[in-house]
Amino acid sequence: MAAYTDLFNRHAVHTADAISMVGAFFMRHHYGLLIAVGIGSGLLIPVLLGGLDSIDLLVRSDPLDWLLLLGLVFVAWNVNAGRIRLLAGGVGIQVDQVRALGIQIATEFSIAATPASSGGPVTYAWLLNRQGMGMSRGMALYAADHMIDLLFFLTATCLLGLYWFIVPGELHLGLQMSLLIGGLLLILGGLLYCIHNHRPIFRATGWLMQQLRASPRTRRKVARWVLAFRRSLQLVRQFSTARLLGVYGLCAGHWLIRYSLLYAAIQLLGGEMTWPHAFLVQMLSLTAGQLVLLPGGSGGAEVSGSLLLAPYLDASTAAAAILLWRFVTFYWYLIAGAPVFALMAGQPLWQRLREKMSDG
């Protein structure tokens, strides 16, 4: 028993030190203020739009409802961890489920804690690098991961568009759906162009290095990195059909769960809204959040989400739903992800993120 107690105490101290390191890093580099502004605006905006009744709704809600939503988040994390394992296995790197889950949670924390989600790809590649994968290959897998996400959202958006064109009374959303589909197609087409036509990318990169007056050594280093990046993407294209279908299936499962959270929150608070509407609200809100240079898209996601819910819910219910949804998809990512990020990444990744943020 004494041995177990000692092990628990040492783990608790290690975790406490890791959390302290997270706090110290953000405060030292002014990211604490940035996150504080993001959290403050994210909490204040829905309350201003929905009034104090929205807080009363949350206080009177069943704690089991919150646990249910957090359970769905944990399931979604595990599903995406399976996707990480399939992607890494396709390039010869074996990652167990627990470590893949840690990579997933740490990456989600980094996405939530940095402006425009800029820390996500660095964290993802860094943690896979510690499993024996090169950084450029890890970045390539992250890019491939997001290409698969784009394919899923393109499919989902097309299906939702058909739904609203078929269902009477919903034709006013057709223009929004068309714009979304067009944007996703342009993004996906750009990515595919970069894969198949790398020479113009090389020339543009060389021109940029020349304008920045980079040294010949730096130019060669960047060129080697871009080439390795493209080769990694080409390697992903060589995955077996079964593996690609598995990755896409897990991608769909992850996003279907994650994009059901707002719908579940609305239902648990006594509101009425169809799942397709809730899906679209989340998609548009998170897109708007990316335009706001605050961690997690705070402010933009809350404003757009509240406005999009306004035609279907009263102000207090809409605000409460936004607060509950953002808690499980943003604040919880920070709370649960901070110790995992610190324990898995350590001080070297803090330094790399600091340099990336400074360069940006």
List the helices and strands and how they pair.
Layout: H1 2-28, H2 31-50, H3 52-60, H4 63-90, H5 97-113, H6 119-129, H7 135-166, H8 174-196, H9 198-211, H10 216-237, H11 241-258, H12 261-268, H13 275-290, H14 300-309, H15 315-345, H16 347-359
Helix pairs in contact: 1-2, 1-15, 2-3, 2-14, 2-15, 3-15, 4-5, 4-11, 4-12, 4-15, 5-6, 5-15, 6-7, 6-16, 7-8, 7-10, 9-10, 12-15, 13-14, 14-15
How would you describe this protein?
This protein has about 350 residues and is mainly alpha-helical. The protein has one domain (about 1-360). The chain is built from 16 helices and no strands. Helix 7 packs antiparallel against helix 8. The longest helix is centred in the middle third of the chain and has 32 residues, at about 135-165. It is globular.
